[in-house]
Design goal:
Layout (H helix, E strand, L loop, with lengths): L1 H32 L12 E7 H7 L1 H11 L4 E8 L30 E2 L26 H11 L3 E7 L9 H4 E3 L5 E5 L4 H17 L4 E5 L5 H6 L17 H10 L3 H19 L8 H11 L2 H27 L4 E6 L2 H4 L1 H5 L3 H5 L4 E5 L3 H15 L8 H12 L6 H7 L3 H15 L4 E7 L13 H13 L4 E5 L7 H16 L1
Parallel strand pairs: 1-2, 1-11, 2-4, 4-7, 7-8, 8-9, 9-10, 10-11
Antiparallel strand pairs: 2-3, 5-6
Bound molecules: zinc ion (ZN).
């Protein structure tokens, strides 16, 4: 029975492999024959587009690059070469309407994720994560496929790598984070030397094996304190699942003179508080006071959160060092997540000036359309626990003052989206923050999926947001999150905004 099944499975896999490889080969060869003459990159600014490998396979390399250059005024491709997540890789997110290009069929069943280039074994000797090749596009090496065509046009190519894994990756059980209850999770422990070795290996492999221009690194993960509170737009509140309590974290606690027992005890107390708050059991002194009391009683909570942040930033420094070791002229950028925009407590843990020391550019998330719904979700989360005594409308108003936002009220924001003024203010804040030590490229929202109540991009929104980023003084832009979720009218509006700005 098992043999039969595996035989069928093998045949199916071979079929997928062969067809995908053939498709890939066809995409590469015919496209190169038809490659047009190089076109000069526009303006002095880096105008980037995030795109997953599947879009080139689905729509053809030259056709996609034509659209990028002609419609979107793009001169730089942020090609997703590594992720197991659907935010950067794959076709449109399942359940969302397809854009007006590419196949109108979901890849939900075939999507796998991983490394869309070729992992060269010699670089992965010091990590258990050796086997990460993406299987959904067969043997296709997306860098081999896209690089020659992009170079011919004078376009730059960056590898966009994201720390999103799936639990079936071979070796992941050896490097996974351990939660408060001692359970293994699906996320990698950033203090584990093996994990550090993996990221270093991956970016070294890309920069040595291919003629790329650099790397854009994504890690949107939060530390235990924010995770316990669910104080982000993108998560549910799971206070009993905080991490990490593995052997490397135990060692770090010892080195820092932190008692791991106290850390556990504090997070267990916080877990009890969060559960009671979610059930509406108001402490005698109110929700906020009780929360602050736990922080005062257990300073280890913040200290443990900082251990996570330091490990995350160490990986950024590792990536930067590894890329520069290959060639100092290669550029490194970091994606700075949306929670940095909404959550003042998170903001306090991030210094743009410090991040600037590890990167050539920062891609700051200022997604405005989906931002409305996301910001509302963030307020809903914190209003369910720590700020449960405050009406949501007032909480958002107060938070807007802290963040320097002037946006629509709570009840209207999801449908309205954030404004172009939000893009301008956040871009300006980042530019002021880095003090000229690195470049700032705001990530512009082009059709990022929202729920039913959220705002979907229109060409007018996209034009206004693109212009706002440039007017704030940005060194360029990155159209986000992936081409396979963007409508062409919005792509064209972004390009128009870039061209109008350079004419002005
Ligand atoms: Zn750990």
């Amino acid at each position: 029975m098992n043999n039969e099944l595996s035989e069928i499975e093998q045949t199916r896999r071979n079929f997928i492999k062969t067809t995908a490889a053939l498709t890939g080969a066809a995409v590469c060869s015919t496209d190169l024959l038809a490659a047009p003459e190089p076109k000069p990159a526009n303006s002095g600014k880096m105008i980037g587009m995030q795109v997953g490998a599947v879009s080139f396979v689905d729509e053809g390399v030259e056709q996609v690059l034509d659209i990028f250059q002609e419609k979107a005024a793009v001169n730089t491709i942020f090609l997703n070469t590594f992720s197991y997540g659907r935010g950067l890789a794959g076709r449109q997110v399942p359940g969302q309407p397809f854009p007006d290009h590419g196949p109108q069929e979901s890849d939900e069943k075939s999507f796998h994720g991983g490394n869309y280039a070729t992992p060269h074994a010699e670089y992965y000797k010091h990590t258990v994560l050796k086997d990460t090749r993406a299987s959904d596009l067969g043997n296709l090496d997306i860098l081999e496929c896209v690089l020659p065509a992009a170079k011919k046009r004078g376009m730059k190519v960056f590898c966009a790598c994201e720390d999103v894994f799936r639990s079936s990756v071979r070796g992941i059980d050896k490097v996974a984070e351990i939660d408060l209850q001692g359970r293994r999770t699906g996320t990698l422990c950033l203090l584990n030397p093996d994990v550090r070795n993996f990221w270093t290996a991956l970016v070294t492999d890309y920069c040595k094996s291919y003629d790329v221009d650099g790397v854009l690194f994504f890690n949107e993960r939060n530390g235990p304190l924010l995770n316990a509170l669910g104080a982000s737009h993108s998560q549910s509140i799971a206070s009993s699942r905080v991490t990490c309590f593995c052997e490397f974290h135990r060692r770090a606690a010892k080195e820092l003179g932190l008692s791991l027992d106290r850390v556990r005890e504090g997070y267990a107390k916080l877990d009890q508080f969060i559960r009671a708050a979610l059930a509406g059991q108001r402490p005698a002194d109110g929700y906020f006071v009780e929360f602050w009391r736990i922080l005062v009683d257990y300073p280890e909570l913040m200290a443990w959160d900082k251990v996570f942040d330091q490990a995350k930033h160490q990986i950024l420094a590792d990536v930067n060092a590894a890329v520069k070791k290959v060639r100092p002229s290669l550029q490194v950028g970091f994606h700075i997540e949306h929670v940095n925009s909404f959550n003042p407590i998170f903001r306090a843990t991030r210094s743009y000036e410090d991040l600037a020391t590890k990167a050539d550019f920062l891609k700051i998330v200022v997604y405005n359309n989906c931002g409305g719904e996301r910001y509302v979700h963030f307020i809903d989360n914190i209003a369910a626990t720590v700020f449960r005594d405050v009406p949501k409308e007032e909480l958002m108003k107060f938070n807007n003052h802290l963040l320097n936002y002037e946006e629509k009220p709570y009840g209207e924001l999801a449908a309205a989206g954030m404004s172009a003024d939000y893009v301008f203010r956040e871009t300006k804040r980042a530019i002021d923050g880095v003090k000229g030590k690195c470049k700032i490229l705001p990530g512009i929202d082009i059709g990022i999926p929202t729920g039913r109540s959220g705002r979907m991009a229109t060409p007018e929104d996209t034009y206004a947001a693109t212009q706002a980023g440039l007017k704030a003084g940005a060194d360029g832009l990155i159209f986000s999150r992936k081409y396979s979720e963007m409508r062409l009218a919005n792509v064209a509006a972004a390009g128009r905004a870039v061209r109008d700005f350079s004419k002005a």
